[in-house]
């Protein structure tokens, strides 16, 4: 039996015109018209037995007959002489039965309403039953709960977990709209799965509050960890320079404005290959020598590279009568200075760890197991890896985040077809390291990495969840590949425009909701959800440390004080003193 049985007497109105996925319904009852609301659901009779078409009210108008005629004559617009009209966008079909299952909702339109077909408002108990159908269809082992539908608070809102991560997702919203709350809600449910596997790029330590066996917290090594010798076992992550691709090394160490930049890049690449060759020979890894490239993740001593650069920079070669300067004499000075400067910069201690911390052949195996091993592979612990990047200097942040993403992608790419365990990358504050406009080599390198993941990640089991308060500043290619959208309140016009471009043409009106969404309320559209609608996100068990400070309350507190001396000392040491 259908959950949406109506009688003709309950009809809101009748279909006046049909245009692809848009229907105009004439409403004769003024009281019924007053009760309608934009973005509410309606059901329409279908020409196929056992089918009902589901639509969203897009516009409600009451037009005087005289005005309609004027519009038709003067502007050439289509006009309806009826006084009360409702414009409806069709979004799917409810089937009484599909095979052995009853009451199935599909996001397809196998037919359109006939002229004079009845239209019914979905309200009360019928709305609750319909939302229950949506939840069941989205159900199964792959379903993921976001909260409750704004249309019906009694109906739990689910999305399809497979499609959410396979097709990438975009979570956007202005500051204070509930982005971090939504992300925490997603992470908690991911962490509960027995073989969970996700990496969170945490820019400000917001997700340090996420607790439970499903989480493991790491932080990129800061200046205070250089001499302490802390490593993976201590939750401290070093990202040694030898993990960087050739392009990343060039962008970091070679000044492109230098007239000798091409020579410097060429000489550096040659020196790095020689240093990697020396490491492999010394360790007895002769089987790797035949096929490795400059981009292969093989440790090498930066000191040996510097020594070779110094030799070439001061090299004198035999001439016709006396010695003359070598081809690179004096042309590598700036490169050497940049290398030395970076190596001695304590802020970059994670790139240049102490000897024995991250310079062995086996270190990468351990790091990859920690970062990309699922929860089941690690005895049920730490399927969601939260990496705190808060101590990484902002000028090279894109390069470092891109390095981790590149490592995840390449491990998945080089895994055997049947041995890939999928991983999701949660990119918090994505506009910081996947910008639309690259202003440095570091940003260009990160953009290239994330663009490739966005385009090809699905094939290798790498999903992206892009999180940002400024979608207009996030790389367009990456955003366009996100087929699922969770949009919180957005007040900036440019950001709203980006989100509207992601909406299907039939749902363009949903974009008007962006500036009026409540805190914690989201517009959810995409492959992972059957019904594009507003959802009130449920509260996570562990709220993120979003850093929202109550200004007025703190100012009014006579006992409130700030530990300014510790802040100044932390600034001097470049490490947080608690």
Give structural notes.
The chain is an alpha/beta fold and 578 residues long. The termini are far apart. Helix 9 packs antiparallel against helix 10 (333-344). The chain has helices spanning 30-35, 65-75, 124-137, 161-166, 179-192, 246-253, 261-283, 286-289, 302-313, 333-344, 363-372, 397-413, 441-460, 476-480, 493-502, 551-556, 564-573; strands spanning 13-19, 22-26, 41-45, 51-62, 84-98, 101-106, 118-121, 143-149, 156-160, 169-172, 198-202, 215-220, 236-237, 316-318, 323-325, 384-388, 423-427, 462-468, 484-487, 521-526, 533-537. The strands form 3 sheets. A 12-stranded mixed sheet has the order 9-8-21-20-19-10-18-17-11-16-12-13. 40% of the residues are buried.
